[in-house]
Every structure is written in structure tokens, then in C-alpha cells.
User: What shape does this take?
Amino acid sequence: MNFNYWCRQGLTECVCKWGILAIFLVVAVLIPSAAFATHGGSPGQPCIKEKVGGNPPCTANDVRLGALTVVSGPESCIAGENITVTMEATIESGPDRYDIGLWINEVGGSALSDPDGTCFREYLHPLASPATSCDQQGGPYWDAETAIGDVCGDVYAQNTDPCGNKITGPCTDGSGGTCLFTVFQFTATFVCGDSNGDGFADVNTCTSWDNNVNTKAAENCGATNPLNPELDTDPGTGSKCSCNPDDAPIRVGDITICGNGIVEGGEQCDPGDPVVGDCCNDSCKFETIDTACGDSSNTTCDNPDTCDAVGVCQPNNEPDGTPTTCGVGECAATATCQGGLDTCTPGAPSAEVCDNLDNDCDGSTDEDLTRDSSCGVGECSATGTETCTAGVWGDDTCTPGAPSAEVCDGLDNDCDGSIADEVGITCDDTTCADSGTPYGGGTCTVTTFACNASSQCVPTEDVSSDTCGGTADSPSVTYYTCSADNTTCESNVTSENDSCTDSGDALGGGSCSATNWTCDAGGTTLESTTSSGTDSCDASDPDNPSVSFFSCSAGDGTAGDTCSADTTDRSDSC
Assistant: This one.
């Protein structure tokens, strides 16, 4: 029971201090506790206008709801969310009125008319039996129609006292009249709202009644809806109801609105728009210490933010100047924390090289590094691959080839780094022999060949093996050599220096009377060993024969031979 409410209504100090207390002590003794139990009701019902039709004004003040106090429920609520509250309604009335009904809009609209909303409905119960055992301060309630089976409570005129325990006082509507105060408890669920902006939850309500006592059982409250008698408390006529003005909703005790940005009543905080992580829970109480809030990042310098004991989100940054590191390998760097930020900037990576360092800053050292390698010399040369490990090149896959005996081919076959050792080694080639009888016939047979400094396989100058002897008509050449391509047997006497001479005029005249021919000491000029007058070998120019080679016509070297041109000598080959 809200005694302060009664005192606010203008009752004398004596009544407030002693009278009300005495009355309720008597009531507590005489009335079973069940009489004060919270009652049911019918949620989700049409509001007055939608229920009865027409356009009821509901402006009479015969019976009106003066106040709602909270018996049990939340201390605060979030606007727009449903809350369930057990309330104590104080009903003010003047004359006798019957079958009192209570209407509360459940979604924040008007209880008089809300086409899109619903109302919660309740009625006064239980009833006193006999009627004179009634108590309007919580029930059982006075019922003027008990004799015909009515089940809905009534209010008696404020200037009467059939129960013998009335509480009256000045009406709170400002009319100056005296009102009977009836108290009734019920539980309802409705949307938390603050339509007048005072920071407290409120609702829009109506009361309804009947001006006349029912005389027929069929008209009794509860006759049509015995399980829900509150549905039989429609206004007796269109004027038999009272609704609070839209701008004057009924405050629901001291339930504050959590989320309106105002810290009220039992609230510890109210950010205006409760969200997870603002250190204020949905009941406008501080979150527990160390609840995550704000920025949840977890970096070197910025630890996750948490709530402290007074609902403040602490950044938990590392102190400025705290050393930090960043990067790996050659990109590693150091710095400090400043204002919760890590000022460290890693270096730039570079291409990986074989130095036992992580140049490309990927956490690995000298990875995937290989290079081409070579080994061996000459014909043993080979290639392979080396791999870098811990800054050192190794694991060479190169294997040199096997050396072989040196041959005359310009290659380093024995892999000793030189081809000079080819010179003089015996080599194989074909026999070099002439095809006819130049310079006296016979066959030039070379029996051995050797490699020269140009890596060519050439015959050796083995004089004893040459057989180039001729007759008295042709010079006996000392030896032969092979041509540069090893295909032609050539005299070492230069062809252009050959000459057919006698002891007289050189290169001309008379008969070729030489009986024997030899090469000179230098091995470059044909010489006659005898002289026999004047040779004549060309009528056109006695002094300069026009052919390169000559032979004696008779072929026997006797006097009187005619020196004639031998044009076959240049084409001889062996």
C-alpha cells in the first residue's frame, strides 16, 4: 500500500500517520492474504471505441484512475520493449458506480481508441460476502448486486461507508471535490514508453462503469463472459467512461526509461541509445568490470578496451614509449608506442642473395637460390648447379668428363689445359705418292706422319724413304712433301724457280746438251752438271723461254737434244 500517495491527496497528518496504519492493520488481520493477490485479466482486447462502436467521449469523472504504483517489475526499461509489471491502481470516485472496468493500452496508443493497437482489460475482484465485509483498499470489494449473482466489484458514494473503513480525500483532478479511494492490484504486459518525455514509463488508461444496479441475472457482469468477467465491463452508455488525455498519460511508478539519455531513479547510466560495448547494459546499469567495450582491436600498443567499475570504457593502451618491433629479416625495425599506435615501420625487402640473411623479408634465409657452375678443362669440361646454404654456395652437381689419350685434332683430349703436347705425336694418314713421273719418275712414299703446331697431321721428312730417282733427262729430286691438305705429293723444289740451263747462256739458246740434272745446294733450282754449247728452247724469245718447265726431246741427255716445253709438269700430282 502506498501510504505516501494517500497523504499527498490532502488527508490530515493524523490520518496519514495513524489512521491509515490502523486501518491496514485491521484489514491485515481480518482479510485473508489471498484477497490481496495479483489478479489476471484479458490482454489483446479492442480498446473502448473499437469495442462498443460509435464515438464515446469518455470524459466523465465519476470514476477515474488517479495513479499507478509498481508492486513488482523492472526499475527501468528500454523504450519500445515489452515489460511485465504488477501494479497497484488507485481509483478515485464520487458517486455510487457499478461494474468497474480498467483499460490499459498495451502498445502506447490511446485506450479510448486505437484501431491498430490493443488494450489490456481488468475488473474489481474478488467480491465481499456479505457486502458489508468489503474493503476498497485491496479487496474484497463492495458489490451492490451480490444478491442476483453479479461478480464485478463496485464503488460506493464517497459520503457513505457501507464497509465501515473508507478512505476519502480531495480528488486529484483539481475539481475540489472529495473522492473515495479504491486500491486494486493487477499484472499487465505493455510496451515501455515515455509519451510525455518526463523520463518515466507511462501508459494511457480508461475506466468504465454502469450507472445503474442490475436487477436481472441476465444483465449481471459475468453473465455473458463467466470466465472473463472484465469483458462485461463495457461502459453502460457512451458517457460512462473516463480516459486520461493524450497529453497526460498515467506514470507507471518510478520505472525509468533506459535509453532516453537521462539518468533517473535506479539507473546508473543512460547513454540514450544502449548498444553493446558502451559499458551500460540494457537496464541502464554499469556493465561488469572488464566487459569488452569500444575498440576491440588487439595490437602491440592497443589492448582491447574494457569497462571499469563506473561504466567508463578504458582504452588500455600501452604507455607511450613502450618499445615495439616490426618486420622480419633485413626488414626488421624498432620503434615505440605513441597514443596507442605502433609507430614502427618495417624496412623494404630486396632480392634474396647468398649471404645468410633474409633479404626478401619472408622469414626464410637464402631460400631457392641456385647458380650455374662449371668444372674440368679441355674435353673434360662440364656444367652443373650450385645451391646456397647459410650464405655459402655448395652442393655442386658438376662432374668433369674422363680424359683420353691426346690425338692430333686441336683439342685438349687429356684435359691437362694444353694442346702443345700434340706436336710430334705420331698420327695416321694416307700414303703420299705421285701419279706419274715428274722430275724423273719413281714413287714418293712417305712412311710416317706427325702432328705439327697447327694440329695438322703431316708427313715426316724421312729422306731415306723417298724414292724419287730419275734418268739423265730428269733431275733426281732429293725428297718430296705432301700438300697442305695432305692430298698431293709435291717436290720441295719451288716450281717457279726451276730452270733448264747449260754452262753457256742461261735460260735460252741452242740445244739442251745437259746429260744430268741436279738440284742446287739450296734445293730450289735445277742445275746441269755439264755444258754443251748453246741451248735454244724457244724461237720466239731465245733468252726467256715462255714455259715454266722443260725437258729434253730425246730423253737421253745427248748433245743435239732439243729443249721442248713440258706442259704436263704443272699438273702432275701424286
Residues 13-30 form the longest helix (18 residues). The longest strand covers residues 178-191.
